[in-house]
Design a protein that fits this description.
348 residues; alpha/beta; Rossmann fold; 2 domains; five-stranded parallel β-sheet; 15 helices
């Protein structure tokens, strides 16, 4: 265990129940939760003291009941001080989760509870604790008398996202999966003579997909890193653009996200020392000082003018990026947030 990670001395061992690979597909690489929860937890407790249960792989290969039985036997055998779950859908049996509470302290680690409220409301009653990355959701839980809620923002894995001092090669870049809204924004900017280098899954039949290391390089090598919403929009122009393709129509019909939130990308770009121009979302101002540590846009139709302004003002960009980097290093690593999570569970 590293000396700068302060947790209760009686917490020695943890079990993490999550997908090791992105959506359970090895070819897609490690999952977000593996990189930003499992790996940082290994830094805190030591790799030998963090045991991984890849529930989704077993669920796909052997079925729900078999996976649940193996999980129960696994926890009984390993006897971790706490077990952290990154839930996906409804792969677990409620009685299994309830029984686990007899052998370990349990916590459900939620990422998207602002727009998965029904799912979260069902599952929180089966765990000792649950977390939320969203400040306002946390306040709502406390107001409802749910005192087992813990605020745990996304943060960034400090061993993955860092400043590399690479030469800048992209004027404006965006890293993120395809969505009709994002496509429409990119096309709108092109009409305003702003070319955005796009990376991510779903663009051009995945030809734009890049690895984790390549993504970190892009954050370091971009003059402006755009952080674009992946939510819904009522703009008639966006809607008209989306229904021109089957892909756009399908995405609109299947997209369940109806509320924005501070996401991991906000922390990741800043942790790489990159200048970030992001959509504004309530709560972002609580983790970064707007216009001093991160730049934001609130209206897509003003975004082009903001990009042109920042491209012409290197000193302004540099100051904001440096301030955002300093704030990230001091406060926002996943390692620091997970230490706080452990301390909250064990009442340090």
């Amino acid at each position: 265990m590293k000396a700068n990670y302060s947790i209760p001395s009686n917490v020695k061992k943890a079990a993490l129940v999550l997908m090791q690979y992105d959506y359970g597909v090895k070819e897609r690489g490690y999952s977000f939760e593996y990189i930003n929860v499992y790996q940082p937890m290994c830094d805190i407790l030591g790799e030998e003291n963090v045991i991984l249960f890849d529930f989704y792989d077993l669920y796909k290969s052997k079925g729900k009941d078999y996976m649940n039985q193996q999980l129960l036997e696994f926890i009984k055998s390993e006897k971790p001080d706490f077990t952290l779950f990154c839930l996906f859908e409804n792969e677990f049996n409620e009685n299994t989760i309830n029984e686990l509470k007899n052998y370990t302290t349990t916590i459900a680690y939620f990422f998207d509870d602002p727009w998965r409220k029904k799912f979260v409301k069902h599952w929180i009653k089966y765990f000792h604790f649950f977390s939320t990355p969203d400040y306002y959701m946390y306040k709502s839980y406390i107001a409802d008398g749910l005192n087992n809620a813990i605020l745990s923002p996304f943060g960034f894995n400090e061993n993955v996202y860092f400043k590399k001092e690479l030469p800048q090669k992209y004027e404006v870049s965006f890293v993120g999966g395809y969505s009709p809204l994002r496509k429409w924004i990119i096309e709108y900017l092109a009409k305003e003579n702003i070319s955005v280098k796009v990376f991510g899954r779903g663009w051009n039949n995945d030809k734009a997909f890049i690895s984790q290391e390549e993504m970190v390089n892009v954050f370091n090598q971009s003059i402006i890193n755009l952080n674009l919403s992946n939510g819904t929009s009522k703009d008639i122009g966006m809607f008209a653009s989306s229904i021109k393709s089957l892909k756009g129509i399908k995405h609109i019909l299947l997209n369940r996200k109806n509320k924005e939130q501070v996401k991991g990308r906000h922390f990741e770009i800043n942790a790489c020392g990159g200048f970030q121009l992001s959509y504004f979302v309530p709560g972002l101002n609580l983790v970064y000082e707007i216009d001093k540590e991160i730049a934001v846009y609130e209206d897509i139709y003003n975004l082009a003018d903001e990009i042109k302004l920042f491209l012409k003002n290197e000193s302004m960009r540099t100051e904001i990026a440096l301030n955002g980097y300093d704030r990230s290093i001091k406060e926002h690593s996943a390692q620091k947030y997970l230490c706080n999570l452990i301390n909250c569970m064990f009442n340090k």
